[in-house]
Design a protein that fits this description.
By secondary structure, the chain is of the alpha/beta class. The protein has eight helices and 14 strands. The strands form three sheets. The protein has a seven-stranded mixed sheet.
Length: 267
């Protein structure tokens, strides 16, 4: 049998403020890392080219639709591969990921289909003091994406982006309920799998202010019919304000944590 491995997948669009740190921090955790750029118009493409030139495990792709990002990982179904999804606003702590990697590859979590980690959904980042404030998961929802593709036979159907939507066909002995909620077992201070989710901050130099972007599901929806509805509503000027992230990522009291370890190069 082949050796187990970890494959990263990132779908980005106009992410030039944090994407370099997000991808550098995650790349060392992965054996290979695929980055799909969806028509970025800020400095993101230039940043990605630099990263690909420096880091040999990074592979760049251009996509015309977010759904194409699923095609980059679809063929890993049934293999001894963990798929690690990373967005341009998700900053993981690289030293903690390095501690987690041996556990993943040695089979500690092989009975699980998904692993969720600890998250701070950031509303304020103080770069001078190296602190961040926001809402922790728990009690908020965790949005980390680490999937055991050896648990499935296929992931097909309409996927608005990688690791969302579609139909997952599980191997015998696995189901969608086989989830490991590390965020409910371990505190933020002790967690190896922990993430700064900068979803309420500017992600691009083209953004005029801090605001939560619509996620892919809000924009393209779980079905093609939803995509058509969204396209028509945008053409006639009716766009509902993005509420999905606020309802899930702004629960409980605000916490302030040190984030120096998340920015090891002073980025």
């Amino acid at each position: 049998m082949s050796e187990p491995r970890i494959v990263g997948i990132s779908l980005v669009r106009n992410e030039d403020l944090f994407v370099e740190t997000a991808l550098r921090n995650a790349a060392g955790f992965c054996d290979e890392f695929h980055i799909a750029d969806h028509a970025s118009t800020d400095r993101t493409p230039a940043i990605l080219r630099v990263l690909a030139g420096e880091l040999p495990n990074i592979h760049l792709h251009s996509v015309r639709h977010p759904a194409e990002s699923q095609d980059l990982i679809r063929h890993f179904a049934g293999s001894r591969t963990w798929i690690f999804g990373v967005d341009g606003d998700e900053i993981y702590e690289p030293d903690r990921l390095a501690r987690l990697r041996p556990s993943i590859l040695s089979g500690v979590f092989e009975k699980h289909w998904m692993i969720f980690g600890n998250v701070l959904h950031v509303t304020k980042l103080d770069e001078r003091r190296r602190t961040a404030s926001g809402h922790l998961a728990p009690p908020c929802r965790s949005m980390t994406k680490l999937y055991n593709f050896s648990a499935i036979e296929a992931w097909n159907g309409y996927t608005p982006e990688r690791l969302h939507g579609g139909t997952v066909r599980f191997r015998a002995g696995y189901s969608r309920e086989d989830r490991r909620m590390l965020n409910e077992e371990t505190s933020w201070q002790e967690a190896d799998f922990r993430c700064l989710h900068l979803c309420f901050l500017k992600r691009s130099s083209l953004d005029s202010e801090n605001t939560a972007r619509r996620n892919i599901i809000e924009t393209f929806g779980p079905t093609r019919l939803h995509t058509l509805w969204y396209t028509l509503s945008r053409l006639v000027g009716f766009q509902k304000a993005a509420q999905w992230k606020r309802s899930r990522y702004m629960r409980g009291p605000e916490a302030t944590v040190s984030v120096e370890a998340f920015f090891p190069n002073g980025a």
